[in-house]
């Protein structure tokens, strides 16, 4: 069965889906996107993702393409038409179609909305088989990384460099200060040499990760301390444990950084505990209505 996409009010076979060549997302990267994990028919942290979508749209002065209630219906209909109960949903909102000009269109232009979904492998159950390695790379992105824009060329280049070195992610750092920001497409955490769980505080230099926020909330509820404080490359290299979070990585142990082992090079007790906590977060709760 061909995958079905939602494109500007129509559900169409994905091979037939298209947008106008003067869509500002294509011409300028003038748009916002979100990626949401669907587990057992339930969109994980859906409200966090929709809150972030609305915030990003406000930051670039772009209205929502429809009400949140209507968008929820579209997300569920895309999953239903594709018969997906565990997958990854992608939605993108751009400023729409207008004559090519860097400034915003002078005439009212409706935002463009595209939604797709794809099946993914089942949620990981064995944390020891879930570990991976990363590289480090200078953070060459723009000054508003808190906005989830479709402008991702620096991220793509960093991810490609990681792949070419046999790693799954590039951990970015400020070349002026040596302080770690985040992964090219993930939030990056350490358990420092003193046993403290740390992740960078929110600011314009990093994306406010939804999985990051959900895990912090779970840790607070469990009475587990976490420090929202930046750390340097040197602190990272002395860390006992490290991991990344995202809608696709969940809680993913990092066992090597630039080829050197993190701690003893095995999944540590803290990350093992956090993996279990987040697995319960994903698998718990009531299913959303179809």
Automatic annotation (TrEMBL):
Belongs to the class-IV pyridoxal-phosphate-dependent aminotransferase family. It comes from the Bacteria. It comes from Roseomonas fluvialis. This is Probable branched-chain-amino-acid aminotransferase.
């Amino acid at each position: 069965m061909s995958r079905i996409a939602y494109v500007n009010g129509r559900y169409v076979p994905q091979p037939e889906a298209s947008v106008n060549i003067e869509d500002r997302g294509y011409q300028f990267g003038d748009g916002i996107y979100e990626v949401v994990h669907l587990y057992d028919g339930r969109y994980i942290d859906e409200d966090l993702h929709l809150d972030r979508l609305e915030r990003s749209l406000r930051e670039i002065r772009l209205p929502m393409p429809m009400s949140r209630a209507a968008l929820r219906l579209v997300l569920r209909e895309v999953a239903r038409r594709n018969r997906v109960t565990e997958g990854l949903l992608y939605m993108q909102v751009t400023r729409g179609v207008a004559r090519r000009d860097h400034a915003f269109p002078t005439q009212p232009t409706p935002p463009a909305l595209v939604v797709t979904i794809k099946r993914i492998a089942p949620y990981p159950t064995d944390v020891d088989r879930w570990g991976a390695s990363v590289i480090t790379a200078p953070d060459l992105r723009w000054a508003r990384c808190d906005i989830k824009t479709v402008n991702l060329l620096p991220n793509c280049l960093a991810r490609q460099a990681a792949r070419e070195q046999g790693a799954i992610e590039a951990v970015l750092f400020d070349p002026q200060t040596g302080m770690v920001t985040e992964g090219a497409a993930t939030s990056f955490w350490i358990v420092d040499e003193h046993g403290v769980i740390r992740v960078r505080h929110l600011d314009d230099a990093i994306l406010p990760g939804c999985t990051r926020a959900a895990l912090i909330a779970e840790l607070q509820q469990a009475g587990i301390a976490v420090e929202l404080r930046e750390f340097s490359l040197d602190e990272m290299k002395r860390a006992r444990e490290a991991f990344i979070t995202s809608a696709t990585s969940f809680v993913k142990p990092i066992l090597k950084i630039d080829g050197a082992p993190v701690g003893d090079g095995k999944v540590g007790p803290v990350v093992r505990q956090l993996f279990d906590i987040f697995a319960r977060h994903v698998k718990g709760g009531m299913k959303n209505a179809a």
